[in-house]
Amino acid sequence: MGRFYTNYDWGQNGKKPELKKESLVRIYRYFLPYWKFLIWVVTCILVAAGLALLQPLFIKWIVDTAIPDGDLWLLNLLAVSMVTAAILQGLVGVMQTYLNTRIGQGVMFDIRNQMYGHLHRMSIRFFTSTKTGDIMSRVNNDVNGLQQVVTDTIAQSLNNVLISVTTLITMFLLDWRLALVSILLLPLFILPTRKVGKLNYDAKKQTQVRMSELSSLMQETLSVSGALLVKSFVRQDDEVRKFAGINRELMRLQIRQSMIGRWFFMFVGIISTAGPAIIYWYGGHLVIDENITLGTVIAFTAFLNRLYGPVAALANIQVNILGSVALFERLFEYLDLPLEIEEKPNARKLQDVQGRIDFQHVTFRYQAERDVVRDLSFTIEPGQVVALVGPSGSGKTTVSNLIPRLYDPTEGRVLLDGQDLRDLELKSIGEQIGMVTQETFLFHASIRDNLRYGKPDASDEEVIAAAKAAHIHELIQSLPEGYDTVVGERGHKLSGGEKQRMAIARVLLKGPKILILDEATSALDSHSEHGIQMALDELMSQRSRTSLVIAHRLSTILAADQILVLEEGRLVEAGYHEELLAQNGLYASLYRQQFEGDGDLALDGKRRAVRIGVKQGEFE
Ligand SMILES: Nc1ncnc2c1ncn2[C@@H]1O[C@H](COP(=O)(O)OP(=O)(O)OP(=O)(O)O)[C@@H](O)[C@H]1O
Questions:
Q1: pTM of the predicted model, to two decimals?
Q2: Which among 24, 167, 279, 291 would be 20 to 30 A from 324, CA to CA?
Q3: Where, per UniProt, does this protein localize (predicted)?
């Protein structure tokens, strides 16, 4: 029996979507590579429909011919034929399931790959403004729904049309009066089915909403950071209560759904008995009047039963098709998201990189009307170490993100070796730049694999050399499984300082020409502080490398060839430590405030956290 409802979303605000021609053409293109399978599906459906049609006719021949004539040979033949037809029908059904699944999974495979690839080309802005749960849900749930589109919408509908048409034709050929009565009976089961279909659809939709609420909640509160937050604010009870609330609603909806299903089967049960009863009653009269044979009446009741499911399913076909198209459209929405950072068709490949960086009148906004970087111009010569300092929120991270082209400047240009980043191949920019950010991300994999992310073909010796240079080798060796130790999700099994040294080792392995480094500000014990310091020295000491450091350590600042001081996105001072101190401006003020041990500084009348982060005592 076909399905009478669909669980596809009808898009936003529950409005019925319209069938758009371009969507249909696009969907059609996804199925095109599977045309051979589609032909086989149609063949299977045709064969199955034909075989199914034969069964009632076999009964009719048994009742009308074989038994009255006492023809045992024919009786045997017909009985064997019935069984053979049933076996063949079953085999064709198995074949059809394989083909349906193959097509459905094929389309899913293609779309999933396409979507994942597209998401990786999206800009960082997309990831900072989209909930991870939403992305996951599109890639998982929506794509998974596609199997149902193939099985329910395409194959079932085709099946149902064929069965309904062939059965009706055969019925009319057998006896037009009984056929007419049968057609008059159809609304009897179409109407309740439609009603139940609608109820079920609504219940399913509500269930889906609750399900996604529940998984969002779990995703947020059961992630390491989320769980940490819940614990530190002792909000477990609230979270459990919130969860229970949604969970209870879910339970209610599931029960409702089961009951709707039960009512539905009750109706179907009654009608499947009532329909044949009417046929027997009317057919009985015709047999008594000797207008038709008994076999015809029996065959008719079998045909009528075959007609219920397909016709009722076809009554809901519109919902199915609209739902399927809506599902595809939701996926297209993601596939059509414009790429903010796109490579030009004639983009140049960077060759023999020197590592010179120029900012030319760069202005940048995340959102309209708020400049985060304003008219910024500076040059970093190849091999220089430049320290970027400034109060929190002054735009240091933003500036550093413009160099690997994570964002494009709103105005002005960023040049690498004299070439506008926008004219260069994205891959070749990425290959030249290494980033060590404040928050280190590690995959849930072994330490070795995490380090190798910087250079997939690195030998074990190279990995160890990098770990030694980053002063993390000893620690790794002291772990029971050494380099094969699996670090937890996001590397939560390592301390902050250890993670940062891992990140440094990873970048050392990559060996980029340009290094962007955000020194950690979190308080570390003197031992790991020392380790990191040595690792950083190693990283920056190679003079063939250009380094831009968001500096928080005095030693880094003192070692820098140039210090750039940012304030509200503007470059307010630039020069050496002594030079800047002598100017007695923002840098000197930040330096003095820090020296006095006050982590905060009054700027523009507001109190702001100062993030040059020089530690007390380092000045002595
Ligand atoms: N993705 C974003 N969308 C909108 N605004 C942002 C975004 N990222 C940063 N900002 C804003 O841009 C300004 C500069 O942020 P940025 O992170 O560059 O400062 P920073 O100097 O690195 O600060 P900190 O030292 O605290 O890390 C801040 O006011 C911040 O609120």
A1: 0.73
A2: 167
A3: Cell membrane
